[in-house]
Design goal:
- This protein has one domain: Growth Hormone, Chain: A (Up-down Bundle).
- The N and C termini lie close together (12 Å).
- It is built from 17 helices and no strands.
- The protein is mainly alpha-helical and 500 residues long.
């Protein structure tokens, strides 16, 4: 709504001539953040041996990152709106690179955990400023579709690419390079940001909603921490139940406070919008299923089929290609002509179908005939879904709210990933253990029974993931009623919002 940017209707004509190079810079930063969520998975056994981590503590290499990232994203999004997106983007890049260097040089488990948490903090600043820069740079519906297709591909495919990069670096260099590799990425992106990115200044005189930040971030951290502790402790452990209860209290207090705060951290009109809320719920449900699948397939390929780290990473490549195809070649071309749910619903149905195929895997499954078709369907479905989710959730938002809107989309993704990993892993572990206990009658068959039990646990959890993705299709079909962007409100003319 500000007149600081072009007030002319012909905004697309006056668009930044460097916008596509700017997209390269934004995409590079986003790729770095998304890669880091998974790149250390394959390096984890080496890091554990090197630093002497216990089996109970090793999960913190992953959890410290997702906790800080998911818990602080809303605050990061609001900082981007108040301070200025480009400035916040650069601060996030520099901090992320520094935290990565500390993690690569870690000599104790605590030093690595702290560095991973610090990475999550700066990722929470970086990710929403990157997405909001993208949403304010590309306002023409057709260009916006292409730009968000590329961005959505990185957001979905970067996680799979992380396994490949992690495999290569761990096998041929050292686990520490899985962290050091972020430094050249970040330096290149900082130089590109100063040369190519343009931004409106931050909102002068605005204040951060500190009480909202404490309540919202505290609630999210309690929720994610509760799910991460449910795996080792069990769902009815007093600490786990206390964390969930605390999360409910804090998040309820957060919503109450946001209706009264003079400058709310999350203006509630953003999530009152039916389409935006539908996109965010769809995103969270889709990622719950996808992160669980990544976890199980990584262990299945390495432990059951005895693949090397690099071969495991390469096994995910076809899925990455399918995400790329679904996002840039199908969604980006169709979104200007069809409503977003016409892509999201089939996308989630395809991904759910791929999960159902995976439920048939055994200890002797062949990759090409039994695993590959499922990965291709899941990848295609995710590509069809993610791009319209990002584009629709951030379309038509007042410029001052674009950062916090972007952060809310990212938060739904991170919280979904954390919940998916913990929830599905708990289901897999408990059902696998029950299977082994009931089938282990002949000690001579122990090795085979244990492997069958592990795979049984995976398939039960993948059935749950398939159901969650069907639920995502239902949510998208019922809640996301937006029309094709070219028939709707152009992004450069934000929808009027009832805020002062």
């Amino acid at each position: 709504m500000s007149g600081t940017s072009s007030g002319e209707p012909a905004a697309p004509q006056e668009a930044d001539p460097h916008r596509w190079w700017g997209l390269v810079v934004i995409a590079l930063a986003q790729l770095m953040v998304v890669l880091d969520a998974t790149i250390v998975n394959i390096a984890l056994p080496s890091a554990q041996r090197d630093l002497g981590m216990s089996d109970g503590n090793r999960q913190w290499v992953i959890t410290a990152y997702t906790l800080a990232f998911g818990g602080l994203l809303l605050l990061g999004g609001r900082i981007a709106d108040l301070v200025g997106r480009k400035r916040t983007f650069v601060i996030g890049l520099v901090g992320f690179a520094a935290a990565s260097a500390i993690g690569g040089a870690a000599v104790t488990p605590a030093m690595l955990f702290g560095a991973r948490a610090l990475q999550g903090v700066f990722a929470a600043v970086l990710a929403p400023s990157a997405l909001s820069l993208l949403s304010t740079t590309f306002s023409d519906p057709k260009e916006r579709g292409k730009a968000f297709g590329i961005y959505g591909t990185l957001a979905a495919g970067g996680a799979a690419a992380g396994f490949i990069v992690g495999g290569v670096l761990t096998e041929y260099l050292n686990w520490r390079w899985c962290l050091y590799v972020n430094v050249p990425f970040a330096i290149t992106a900082v130089i590109g940001a100063y040369a190519l990115l343009r931004d409106r200044p931050g909102t002068g005189g605005a204040r951060l909603d500190v009480r909202g930040a404490v309540l919202g971030c505290g609630g999210l951290v309690s929720l994610v921490y509760g799910f991460s502790e449910a795996q080792p402790r069990g769902w009815v452990d007093p600490l786990v139940l206390s964390l969930f209860a605390l999360a409910v209290v804090l998040l309820a207090a957060f919503v109450w406070w946001q209706t009264r705060a003079p400058m709310p951290l999350l203006p509630l009109h953003i999530i009152r919008d039916r389409n935006r809320a539908g996109c965010m719920v769809t995103m969270m449900l889709a990622v719950i299923g996808m992160f669980g699948m990544f976890l199980f397939m990584t262990y299945y390929l390495q432990v059951i089929l005895a693949y090397s780290p690099l071969r495991t990473g390469l096994a995910f490549l076809p899925m990455t290609a399918a995400i790329l195809t679904g996002s840039t070649q199908i969604s980006a071309r169709l979104l200007p002509h069809v409503g977003p749910r016409m892509l999201m619903v089939p996308g989630m149905l395809l991904a759910s179908g791929g999960m159902v195929i995976l439920t048939q895997m055994t200890v002797d499954s062949a990759y090409v005939s039994e695993i590959l078709p499922a990965l291709l369907l899941i990848g295609l479905g995710m590509g069809l879904t993610f791009m319209p989710v990002f584009s629709t959730a951030t379309a038509g938002v007042a410029p001052r709210d674009s950062g916090v809107t972007s952060a809310t989309v990212n938060t739904s993704q991170q919280v979904g990933g954390s919940i998916g990993t913990a929830l599905l892993n708990t289901i897999a572990t408990s059902t696998g253990a029950s299977y082994i206990a009931s089938h282990l009658t002949d000690p001579a068959q122990r090795g085979r029974i244990v492997r069958e039990g592990i795979v049984h646990g995976y398939t039960v959890a993948i059935w749950v993931a398939a159901g969650i993705m069907l639920l995502a299709a239902l949510v998208a079909g019922l809640m996301v009623t937006a029309r094709a962007p070219k028939h709707g409100t152009p992004a450069e003319h934000p929808v009027a919002e009832p805020v002062g």
